[in-house]
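sry for the spam today, last one i promise. struct tokens for design, 164 residues
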């Protein structure tokens, strides 16, 4: 177990702030969580990595194995593990927090990313854009709202995009 502020195992260069200790009434102190990294099941690691790098703007962090079947991509503080043919079902939904959803939308229009919903404001005071990867995983690119909820924000793909 790394010391507080030390790099997490397998995640070189990632440092975490000292964690709080939590307690439940009548129980011993609980260990705090210091991070989470989703593992997405992909059909083809090379194709998935290429899409995340060239369409979604991530960078390849590492791959594991002589004929790699497991790897990681990162963009800013977001890290995703990609696992070829194992570790989870297709169609996972993730929220990715970003500073400017509209700027990211323009970037993704230019890169050819699969955009399922253009940015819109929601009643929960977020602006969101829905992006899909090659394996059917959905990324809710989420940032601060830029105004009141948009007309039609309840009639979106969030209840199940066609083909999911």
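last one done:
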């Amino acid at each position: 177990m790394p010391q507080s502020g030390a790099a997490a195992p397998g995640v070189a260069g990632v440092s975490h702030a000292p964690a709080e200790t939590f307690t439940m009434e009548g129980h011993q102190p609980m260990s705090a969580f210091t991070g989470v990294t989703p593992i997405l099941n992909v059909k083809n690691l090379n194709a998935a990595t290429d899409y995340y790098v060239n369409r979604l703007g991530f960078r390849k962090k590492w791959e594991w194995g002589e004929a790699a079947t497991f790897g990681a991509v990162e963009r800013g503080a977001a890290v995703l593990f990609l696992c070829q043919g194992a570790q989870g079902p297709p169609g996972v939904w993730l929220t990715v927090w970003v500073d400017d959803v509209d700027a990211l939308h323009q970037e993704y229009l230019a890169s050819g990313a699969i955009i399922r919903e253009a940015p819109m404001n929601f009643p929960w005071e977020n602006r969101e854009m829905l992006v899909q990867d090659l394996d059917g995983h959905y990324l809710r690119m989420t940032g601060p709202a830029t105004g009141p909820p948009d007309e039609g924000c309840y009639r979106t793909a969030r209840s199940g995009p066609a083909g999911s």
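The longest strand covers residues 114-122. ok im logging off now
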